[in-house]
Specification:
mainly alpha; 67% helix; globular
Length: 329
Amino acid sequence: MASHRAVLIALTALAPVSWGTTYAVTTEFLPADRPLFTGLMRALPAGLLLLALARVLPRGAWWWKATVLGALNIGAFFPLLFLSAYRLPGGMAAAVGSIAPLCVVGLSALLLGQRPTVRTLLAGVVAACGVSLVVLKAAGALDPLGVLAALTSIASMSTGTVLTKRWGRPEGVGPLALAGWQLTAGGLLIAPLALLVEGAPPALDGPAVGGYLYLALVNTAVAYWLWFRGIGRLTATQVTFLGPLSPLTAAVVGWAALGEALTPWQLAGMALAFGATMAGQLTPAPRRKALEQKKPEQKKPEQKKPEQKKPERKASRRCDTMEPVECRY
């Protein structure tokens, strides 16, 4: 069971690792200043592909549930994330995003009844500090709109993660269909916004087409399928503690592929964030009282009360005859 759980965690972790490559792909291959179009190209093609593979549509209440989850996890999260990345300097958007585990811990207590432990809260703080050391750089004044967009994106994704855990999946529906519903709903919500704000789609060259294919297939379709699969089998807190792997991957990719240097402070931050991620995967030990079986109360041997002899009924002293015979009583 432990090895199976480790494999499940490792597969789920591939999602934030994949998301960590988004920055490099976007800056190197995709058109500049098109965050909404990029979000649309990530979500809608991936969602339609997963719907075609799953061949399952929502039924009943799941039409509005899928729409709500798609808006929280995709439709609102993608535009807000890109907006914060464009308006905040020096990796501040990723630093703000590192508080997501703490947000999910709080929402899990509110909506799922999962009481946070001291270890979980401490791991969340350490993860935020570690990611901040990795991504933060010297910068000027912060943009209020960018900070608000970053905080709102984290609140949106955290709420979507916890609600996905709370609502689960309809009977007979797998994570493939659930991911397809949300990506399609989110993409349809982004489409009119992208057209209204950014206008007509830009002309695409070969590298841009390849970049969008990677984002849609690997970075979104496969990644979100693994992510929602993990949410269904792990706790919401465990899944969200894998999130810091995304900025850590971005830092490693920047060092390996883009020639960016890593300072000792960044390496220390990576160690802290990775350690906090591992700590977040530990399940809380059950309480001692829950493990101890209630010992049956030993009943004291009942003391036998001395039997009270019933008084013997005396024979009647009545004589039925009048003859002078001896009456034996």
